[in-house]
Automatic annotation (TrEMBL):
Organism, as annotated: Roseomonas indoligenes
Family: Belongs to the class-III pyridoxal-phosphate-dependent aminotransferase family.
Descriptive protein name: Aminotransferase class III-fold pyridoxal phosphate-dependent enzyme
UniProt keyword Transferase present: yes
SUPFAM superfamilies, sorted: PLP-dependent transferases
Keywords noted in UniProt: Aminotransferase, Pyridoxal phosphate, Transferase
Family matches, as InterPro entries: Aminotrans_3, Aminotrans_3_PPA_site, PyrdxlP-dep_Trfase, PyrdxlP-dep_Trfase_major, PyrdxlP-dep_Trfase_small
Length: 419
């Protein structure tokens, strides 16, 4: 960290910075394997963040890494893409029921920004509706909380609504008027420092119908949840199909690639926007993506992550109660959010994850976590042994645990944005 601060602003930046985490959380790591990772000091952790989501099948998955290595031997970033790009597009279009075409990029922000541009190109309109407080990336149009370097013009054509609130969405549609280009939604509400909750089917249906009436495009931001909830787009289970869907994180098991998928009517518009980058078409991530899609089709990864997540959730709930605490565990079991009841300043949550970290379990006190298919039943049992000890340690010092002052301004801003 001392070396980093000399050459990197703040020593680290972005969502993987430990600035908001408890003291003692490692910032830099040396290696990772399966469901485990090791920091640069040699400490081993059972990792429940999966690199903030990309490692769906665990670190160093043999078949996926073999496919990536074989492609690397032939060529990666070349003057043009490899055949793997076409194979990856074919695999994703075959897997996702609404998709007729695919375009690739590097990050979730790239995919959501491409979706916005495509909706505007298709409709010739400007207004994009997004949920209040939802996260759709790090571009100026998407950032909702206060941040230096942004201009009001960056969000001049973005209108917010309350997630799962049909009346609020209806008001936003009315405000957009005849300039509505698209409505962007997440498949469930998964923001930091907050409980997660699934969508109301009536809300999804209203969003679909509103786009149909206006000739606008319905966009699903599936960057975080894609292939973790379903082997299809995450809202298809509700009987609602989007026009565009944004993917990233897990689609190539940690390799840097994201995607925009779309329906036939949006193909021409997607082909008309400026969307490019020198590393967007590298072949190694595409080859890894093809292998990942094969594993999604042919293995029971989804059922295993649900089973492991459910076992963890049930065990933690019992442990917390036994030690005199109550947890709020929300969202899908394979993407758990773990908060404490009666903990408005997060003092207990921060203290508990610190105790767990000291015992070799890496959890987050404010961000949803991720279960990978490399996590075994034995890993879950070991985790629960260590979290039980963490609860006991927290109980022993309950009266002396202090509020977490460094996060309070952000927590208050989030609460204000959701009122």
């Amino acid at each position: 960290m001392e070396r980093a601060r000399a050459v990197i602003p703040n020593g680290m930046y972005g969502h993987e910075s430990v600035a908001l985490l408890p003291e003692g959380y490692p910032q830099f790591f040396s290696r990772a394997e399966g469901a485990r990772l090791w920091d640069v000091d040699g400490n081993e952790y059972l990792d429940y963040m999966c690199a903030f989501g990309p490692n769906l099948f665990g670190y160093g998955h043999a078949e996926i890494d073999t496919a990536a290595a074989a492609q690397r031997a032939r060529g990666d970033t070349m003057t043009g893409p490899g055949e793997a790009m076409v194979a990856f597009a074919e695999a994703m279009v075959a897997q996702v029921s609404h998709a007729d075409w695919a375009m690739f990029c590097k990050n979730g922000t790239d995919a959501t920004s491409m979706a916005v541009a495509t909706a505007r190109a298709h409709t010739g309109r400007g207004k994009i509706l997004v949920g209040r407080g939802t996260y759709h990336g790090a571009s100026g149009w998407a950032i909702q909380r206060a941040s230096r370097g942004l201009m009001p013009e960056d969000k001049a054509h973005v209108i917010h609504f309350r997630y799962n609130d049909v009346e609020s969405l209806a008001d936003a549609v009315k405000m957009a008027g005849d300039d509505l280009a698209g409505i962007m939604i997440t498949p469930f509400r998964h923001e930091v420092f907050q409980d997660q909750f699934l969508p109301d089917p009536a809300f999804l249906q209203f969003a679909r119908e509103s786009c149909d009436r206006a000739g606008a495009l319905l966009i699903v931001d599936d960057v975080r949840a894609g292939f973790r909830l379903d082997r299809d787009c995450s809202i298809e289970a509700y009987g609602v199909s989007p026009d565009l869907s944004c993917w990233g994180k897990a689609i190539a098991n940690g390799q840097p690639v994201s995607a925009l998928l779309g329906v036939e009517k949006a193909r021409q518009a997607a082909g008309s926007i400026v969307a490019t980058g020198s590393f967007w078409f590298s072949a190694v991530p595409m080859a890894a993506g093809v292998a990942t899609m094969r594993a999604i089709r042919e293995t029971d990864y989804l059922e295993r992550t649900i089973a492991r997540g459910t076992a963890l959730r049930e065990g933690l709930q019992q442990q917390a109660a036994a030690h005199g605490f109550t947890l709020r565990q929300t969202g899908p079991a394979q993407m758990p959010q773990i908060l404490f009841e009666e903990d408005p300043d997060f003092r207990f949550g921060y203290a508990w994850v610190t105790e767990a970290l000291d015992r070799g379990v890496y959890l987050s006190p404010y961000h949803n976590m991720f279960i990978c298919s490399a996590l075994t039943e034995a890993d879950v049992r070991l985790t629960l042994e260590r979290t039980d000890d963490a609860f006991a340690a927290l109980k022993a010092r309950r009266s002396s645990v202090q509020p977490v002052e460094k996060i309070q301004p952000l927590v208050e801003a989030i609460r204000a944005a959701n009122r």
